[in-house]
Amino acid sequence: MSFEEIYESYFSSVYKFVKMKTRNNMNSEDITVNIFENIYKNLESYSCEKGSLDVWIFAIARNEIISFYRKNKIQTVSMDNIAEASDISMAPEVVIDSKVNNKELVEAIDTLNENERQVITYKYGAGLKNTEIAKLMEISSSNVGVVLFRSIKKLQKKLEV
Questions:
Q1: Would you give the DSSP letter of residue 82?
Q2: pTM, 2 dp
Q3: Dihedral sign of CA atoms 57, 21, 76, 155 in order
């Protein structure tokens, strides 16, 4: 697969993943550019025997986000750009998937532990399959399913009116 094909296929999901992690448009754009620069520079070193292209790309994305926060000494995520609640009657996975900036949902996600937030972000931010999430997080795909199920249940409970 050429870089252009990768860019066309993955840009939207990578940007969505980064946006869910940073909650900041400008930072998301900068980080996404860096991710695709790294993909371009390292494309020749990618080997499908080591793992799927999805896992490789989102490992680069995860590392770039960590690097960005470390370089900029950012400790917390700004909530300034989060829109007011729009419709909390939808199921959490629908809200996440449709990219609704929902203050209550963001606050509910923030109550999840790091492992739960990571699974939610990979699943609904990056659109990865459970098996791909498992490889990235070095856990079993059944464990991903359990964490995802429990996280969605927690979010539903928090978002009940």
A1: P
A2: 0.62
A3: negative
